[in-house]
């Protein structure tokens, strides 16, 4: 390996035979010079990295200027209460109370619309004649009821997004009101009003009981489901063995079962100390559950009253 020697003129400035540097701009520190004395003095308020002033020490604090706290610090003073929402207690209790108010508001609107339609079929003769002359509308209303119910029960995007959830709820309530109105054509107006009054008393009493009792009914979902299957089978058998006694027993069992369902759904909506609860986002589903409980109680009581008349 050969020894390579640099040419005699090679070297750095300041060495013998070295090439000179090209001319520099004024103020640029020449190599080997004093770095601190070659730069022009920094402007006022300029803070170099590290807090130094090119060997002259840190700058004195300026009035009205908040120094940064750390490398990526902010120049804004922090509010010690920034994580607190002032003037509003946004906790689980307040959310649940707002959820309950929303559910009962929607439920009242549903019941008013439903029984408003029913009152037309019971008290208005032209509406009664329209329902009797157009039996095909019953199947249309039944199809609309089933489709909208499945959409709201199975599709979370339908029952959670407004205004789609309110539109589906309104269509379902209107179709259900029409079906119930057609069913009431078999009964006298006083029987319908009696069933309506009994239903109101029962539902109000059970709601108060569900709010006040220490018993937790939310763990009975399996038992209630099995009882509902048994009631469906019994109702299918009454088609072949029908009679006054069988109808009264069937109506009584149905009213009792959906009374328990009303307590169960009310406590699911309440949340809190109960074992299971429904999410506050599911206000449409909770409203739908309570509405179906009330409607089923009304229909089973009306069945008992009609069977007692015969």
From TrEMBL:
Q: What family, per the record?
A: Belongs to the BI1 family.
Q: Which InterPro entries match?
A: Bax_inhibitor_1-related (IPR006214)
Report the transmembrane regions from the record: 103-124, 136-155, 167-187, 193-211, 223-241, 247-264, 284-307
For region Disordered, the annotated ranges are: 1-62
Please identify the protein, giving its name as recorded: Protein lifeguard 1
Q: What is its main location?
A: membrane
* Annotated GO CC locations: membrane
Its subcellular locations are: Membrane
In the bilayer, the protein is annotated as: Multi-pass membrane protein
UniProt biased composition (Pro residues): 20-32
Q: Which keywords does UniProt give here? A: Membrane, Transmembrane, Transmembrane helix
Q: PANTHER family, per this entry?
A: BAX INHIBITOR-RELATED (PTHR23291), TRANSMEMBRANE BAX INHIBITOR MOTIF CONTAINING 7 (PTHR23291:SF47)
Which residues does UniProt call coiled coil? none
